[in-house]
Write a structure and sequence with these properties.
Blueprint lengths: L3 H25 L6 H14 L4 H15 L14 H10 L5 H14 L4 H10 L4 H6 L4 H14 L14 H17 L4 H9 L3 H15 L6
Length: about 220
């Protein structure tokens, strides 16, 4: 049987803990956002992260949902124009969709990702159709990224020769390689060409052909 004194002590500790939790929550709570706050948040975000206008607007919308909006001098909730704010920052050069798309496309290509992953990433970031098309990798760049991915993951002729000794093992390895490269956004024709190559030199010749056709070493 628990004594009344023990119950009282436990209840007192619980009440004290509840008060401390409430006080900590009150200290953490931030006031509703004013238009000046939103401008400061936008500038801070743009200074820290390479972003697009769509991402910046989504960030500000999320902050409004989290903190709410302040009231003006007449007691009415302010109605900020987020698109206008983002457009102004773009005019000042803090946000540049074209620069973001160029940087993102180059970064993904340098990591071995294909055109489809580049397209998906830029679309997810809110880059418009015209800019996505402008920064889509060409044939040479697409081949280069596919070869880079195969080399990094030791696929096709870049893999171990002993993996081909057992036909069953070789077949499963090929299926995995095809799936991995397709997930990375590469064209099936490119995947097939690399995995069908008997030697690394064959892949290098295939890679050089696209550069010759385009008159460049690649677009990245």
């Amino acid at each position: 049987m628990v004594s009344g004194k023990a119950n009282s002590s436990s209840t007192g500790r619980d009440a004290g803990e509840d008060r401390r939790v409430r006080r900590r929550g009150e200290r953490r709570a931030k006031p509703p956002l004013t238009e000046a706050n939103l401008r400061d948040l936008a500038l801070h975000y743009a200074a820290r992260f390479a972003s697009t206008g769509a991402r910046l607007e989504a960030y500000l919308s999320r902050k409004i949902r989290e903190r709410g909006l302040a009231e003006d001098s007449d007691g009415r909730t302010i109605d900020p124009d987020l698109p206008a704010l983002v457009a102004r920052l773009a005019e000042l050069g803090y946000v540049d969709d074209d620069a973001y798309a160029r940087m993102r496309a180059r970064d993904l290509g340098a990591r071995g990702y294909g055109a489809r992953r580049v397209e998906e990433s830029l679309r997810h970031a809110g880059v418009g159709d015209a800019l996505r098309a402008a920064h889509a990798p060409g044939e040479a760049a697409s081949r280069h990224a596919a070869v880079l991915m195969a080399r990094k993951r030791r696929l096709g002729p870049f893999g171990r020769a002993e993996d081909e000794a057992d036909p069953l093992v070789a077949g499963k390895a090929r299926e995995k390689a095809v799936a991995a490269m397709l997930r990375a956004g590469h064209q099936y024709e490119h995947v097939k060409a690399i995995l069908a190559a008997a030697r690394i030199e064959d892949v290098e010749e295939w890679l050089a052909e696209a550069g010759d056709d385009e008159g460049i070493e690649g677009q990245w």
